[in-house]
Amino acid sequence: MTEKVALDDVLSCTNSVITLINYSIQQANNKNFRDALITARNNLENLQWNIYLINKEKGYYVPAAPAGEADIEQVKQAVSK
User: pTM here?
Assistant: First the structure.
């Protein structure tokens, strides 16, 4: 297994766990449990960001180019209709 594949797997698993925790937060009716889930989610989101930075630094991930002004205006117009 290459480093890139391993990082992709960790990122994929992290994303899945964040999704499950978000659902659990929505369903929790115990304040302490809910707070613990929120803390866990926040920690995982920090891990997710760090994995992204590693991928970007090593060239495994190249972010999309920023949207141009014309594209932004087109979306604004479509949404405001």
Answer: 0.76
